[in-house]
């Protein structure tokens, strides 16, 4: 027991944060989706899970965004086109999730996460076409922000993958979406605070933060050794199986 926190209760969440950040650091997406799926499987209520995940992501995306900006990986015109609607969608998603009963929300969230897992499986077998400017951007940012808050994750898989499908440059797309994600997650976290109060931040939040920080440099190294296609396939398999299983339990 340290500072009133039971370490045995903290360890599972540290493990979740570590595993999710390892994948996210190597793949550039899926920290929120993986964390939220595993938190739901550990019995954390949907709104609490999403609030905790986004609090942690506020720190991790701040570091990621600064790094991408310094390396000139950010398309600032595209950034504004996705960040503003993303913030609006994120606030709406957090408000909706905070004001509906957890039992009602859980099946829908798990169904959404299952869809994300299946989409990642598809993306692992299909790569984007030749580079061109994306046409559908603002609606994508709005939907990505809303689903990210409502599902506890999904901004990266939804926005990045769709922009790549439209032919956007992989390097600047990943950098731009990651930089915009800081403002989206900060807004979502602030909305959860106004709706749920400080009770939204539990031992799960602390565990995710510790695990995520430890894994951050290791995930970057992993990215150099494992093919993104293989990692995306692995993420899709894990998310799909975990979400389908928990959806079955929720609907029983």
UniProtKB/TrEMBL annotation:
Q: Where in the cell is it found?
A: Cell membrane; Membrane
Is-annotated flag, keyword Protein transport? no
Question: Span of the secretion signal?
Answer: none
Membrane-crossing segments per the record? 46-66, 78-97, 103-122, 200-219, 231-251
Membrane topology, as annotated, equals:
Multi-pass membrane protein
One GO cellular component term? plasma membrane
Keyword ATP-binding assigned: no
Keywords, comma-separated and alphabetical: Cell membrane, Membrane, Transmembrane, Transmembrane helix
Q: What family does the Swiss-Prot or TrEMBL record give for this protein?
A: Belongs to the 4-toluene sulfonate uptake permease (TSUP) (TC 2.A.102) family.
Put simply, this protein is called Probable membrane transporter protein
Supply the source organism for this entry: Sphingomonas naasensis
């Amino acid at each position: 027991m340290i500072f009133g926190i039971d370490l045995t209760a903290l360890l599972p969440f540290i493990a979740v944060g570590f595993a999710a950040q390892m994948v996210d650091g190597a793949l550039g997406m899926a920290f929120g989706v993986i964390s939220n799926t595993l938190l739901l499987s550990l019995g954390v209520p949907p709104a609490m899970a999403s609030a905790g995940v986004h609090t942690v992501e506020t720190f991790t995306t701040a570091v990621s965004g600064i790094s991408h900006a310094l390396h000139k990986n950010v398309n600032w015109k595209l950034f504004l086109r996705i960040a503003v609607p993303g913030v609006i969608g994120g606030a709406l998603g957090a408000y909706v999730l905070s004001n509906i009963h957890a039992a009602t929300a859980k099946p829908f969230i798990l169904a959404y996460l299952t869809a994300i897992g299946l989409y990642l499986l598809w993306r692992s077998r299909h790569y984007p076409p030749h580079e061109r400017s994306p046409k559908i951007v603002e609606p994508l940012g709005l939907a990505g922000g809303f689903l990210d808050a409502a599902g506890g994750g999904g901004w990266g898989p939804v926005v990045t993958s769709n922009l790549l499908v439209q032919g956007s440059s992989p390097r600047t797309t990943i950098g731009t979406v990651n930089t915009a994600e800081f403002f989206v997650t900060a807004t979502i976290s602030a909305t959860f605070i106004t709706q749920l109060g400080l009770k939204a931040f539990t031992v799960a939040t602390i565990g995710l933060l510790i695990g995520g920080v430890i894994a951050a440099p290791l995930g970057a190294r992993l990215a150099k050794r494992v093919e993104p296609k293989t990692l995306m396939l692995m993420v899709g398999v894990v998310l799909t199986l975990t979400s389908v299983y928990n959806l079955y339990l929720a609907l029983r």
